[in-house]
Amino acid sequence: MDLESHPTTLQEENRKKVHELLKSTHSRIEKLIQKTYQQKDSATTSQLRQLRTRITGLTSEAEKKELDSFGSHNGNIDEFYENEERFVETPTLLLQEVENVLATGGNVDVFAISDLVDRMDMGFSHRIELTNRNLSEYENRIGSKKQAEREEREIREKEQKEAEKTMSMLEPGEGKTVTFEIRPTGECGDCKISAAIDYYDYNTKKRKHVDLEGKMVSIVCPVLRVRQIDEPSWRSVVSTLISAEEDSKDLEIPAENLFDIATRVLKDMNMYMIEPEITSTPRLFTGVARFYAEGVSGLKYASYVEVVGKSRSRLILRAWAEKEDALAGFYHKMLEDIEKRTDIKLFVDEGSAQYNISTTNINDSLIQRSTIGSESEARKCSVCGKEVKENAKFCEECGGKLD
Prior knowledge:
Elements: H1 7-38, H2 42-64, H3 77-104, H4 110-125, H5 132-162, E1 176-181, E2 189-201, E3 206-219, E4 224-226, H6 231-238, E5 242-247, H7 255-268, E6 272-273, E7 277-280, E8 285-295, E9 300-309, E10 313-321, H8 324-342, E11 357-362, H9 365-368, E12 370-371, E13 378-380, E14 387-389
Antiparallel strand pairs: 1-11, 2-3, 2-12, 4-8, 5-10, 6-8, 7-8, 8-9, 9-10, 13-14
Helix pairs in contact: 1-2, 1-3, 2-4, 3-4, 7-8
């Protein structure tokens, strides 16, 4: 589904494309008629003339009909885009069929051409009419896509800020720890994590840069591809996989809305959703959905969403993967995306969403002699006037001792 093209714009553009394709097909049919006439193939010539008449009528329709008179069938926005794709595809195939006969000089397959003309005729009469509901659905999809893009940018910006951290000056013999959280972003397997430290060395009165030795880690996060599956096969597959489970606290979100959000998140991750089980009464809503997908390297992934409640709700979320490191990134992605869409911290155990976090103690003597500024409020150096950290003992600019 090409969300970049607005439905009304796409519909008009396709009408023009079909009109041009039919005009080209009409001129090629004329050449075929001349060819079969010269070959004294009267039966084929007669059939082609009938097809030419039908194509003339379709060309006239494509040129003159207003958009609101195309077809009268209703459908959702996905069906509209699929129908529009077929609407353009059929006359394209029709033109190719006629051109191939002219290029090869082979026998004219009148039945194949006639079948494509029949499909073209049906395409006109079955074209889905755009409604306000369709357009509203499209706007909602665009809004969700833009929101997801904004959230992705915010995450990248946050990660960029988190990539650099500071600590106050270390006394001789003192050590401090800086902790970074690593969030997987792709099914990348083994990768190398490296770091560097910039600091002011008071002994040499110069800024210095130290590259820390990189370390290899294994991070697997899914880049998923939709794979259809039925429920019995799904149950068979998940019985062989590693699982993780999360149960939310009571949430101030209507159960139907939460179920819609959670299932949409997983579908947006390219997971195939088996027909959901939904029970809704005036007092209680229950929704259960099962999902399946495969990663680019063939790893299997599955998930399960259950929402119970009415004006308030509870969410049960389960995830499966073939490998533990693959499950970590997949599970974290599910939790994070659902929380972003609801703008609520859903899950009680926050630690369950933390993966691949490690700390490194820096005990290098060179670093211990350095001055690394903290994030507290700055004050002025009495020697050079440079702003300095509140707990700093020496100026990072001139090296002067602070009061």
